[in-house]
Amino acid sequence: MRPLTLLPFAVFALIHAASALLVSSKDGTQIWAEAKGNPRNPHFVWIHGYLLSSLVFDKLFEDETYLNNLYMVRYDIRGFGQSDKPLNAASYQSARFAEDFDAVVQAFNLHKPFAAGWSYGGTIFTDIYALHGNGVVSGFVYLAALDSTSATSSVSQPLALNTLPNLTQDANVTLYNTAEIGFVEGTIYHPSTLSFETRVAWIGLGAVIPQVVKSNLLNRTQDTTRLFAEGGPSLPVLYVAGLRDALLNDTALVELLRPKFKRFEVLTLPDSGHAVFLEGFEEVRSSVLQFVHSVIDRVSFTLISPSYLVTNLVAKPSLKGVDARRNSFGGCTGGT
Ligand SMILES: *[C@@H]1O[C@H](CO)[C@@H](O)[C@H](O)[C@H]1NC(C)=O
Ligand SMILES: *[C@@H]1O[C@H](CO)[C@@H](O)[C@H](O)[C@H]1NC(C)=O
Ligand SMILES: *[C@@H]1O[C@H](CO)[C@@H](O)[C@H](O)[C@H]1NC(C)=O
Ligand SMILES: *[C@@H]1O[C@H](CO)[C@@H](O)[C@H](O)[C@H]1NC(C)=O
Q1: Pfam families from the entry (predicted)?
Q2: Is residue 137 within 6 Å of ligand 3 at its C-beta?
Q3: At the fourth CATH level, which superfamily is domain 18-312?
């Protein structure tokens, strides 16, 4: 290939350059985070689910349509993936999760980002609102997601309810392995959705989390009061429901959340399991982009804040964190 023919690829790579960082949260916990795409696009943060990491969004972070439309950001929730996994329960208080989100927002200079949470990832929205209320985000996308950890028992399918105790116990490896494999298999309805490589990577993500951390993450308490009281009247929310979800009852979650939010949209995928962003890839992508653009168009009619212009049109992003390609499992410290 002559050098000139490589130019378009070089330009594409430049436009969609990725930055991966270890970001310090307020309590010193190191959070692994990555941004990819053009910072002039709407800012969008993806938050993964239980026992997994932001690795689950790999396909989205390679997708040109997503990258051409959004500034794509993802991070590993504390306790998961490459982020630190403090052992003590105090490190899993609600405010810590909101501070982790804040640290990611600051590191990549995000302005009122949208956020999507898959499954357990949806609980982070409650943490953000409990600490800050309105003004931090532009909208939430629940991807077959929970609103809080306390909802787990009432909206989980039997598979999840029977699996969670086996996943968090510390006495029987056979029981754990069966539960972990069953849990990952339970995220999909169509077996072909996950390649063998992806499947074992997802299963392996459970192994880097100490058992006590797995429990701390489930046992933490949250308060949805501010999310519903302040977000309810004005926050744009999109819920993506998979009717073949084997882990959560998305219909029950929609029934629970619809009365709470005035601006509530639902995308129902009859043929998708729990991993709606993969099993309904194109439909979810169109809905997410439509949702973002409808909110932005409405905002730009009423006001464009000077800080938005500075952030998005003038300032170059200044990244605040330590460069961190995928290479570690994070630290596990702090007594139980
Ligand atoms: C969890 O363990 C119990 C035995 O303690 C077993 O009866 C049950 O089938 C297990 N659940 C799953 C989903 O494997
Ligand atoms: C561990 O769990 C398996 C599967 O339920 C069971 O067959 C086995 O007896 C258990 N082992 C111990 C040591 O309890
Ligand atoms: C989490 O909660 C369960 C059920 O209430 C309890 O059995 C378990 O000991 C708790 N785990 C931790 C680490 O606090
Ligand atoms: C899911 O929740 C809906 C609404 O509450 C209920 O009608 C349905 O029976 C539930 N499905 C399952 C499989 O539990």
Answers
A1: Abhydrolase_1
A2: no
A3: Alpha/Beta hydrolase fold, catalytic domain (3.40.50.1820)
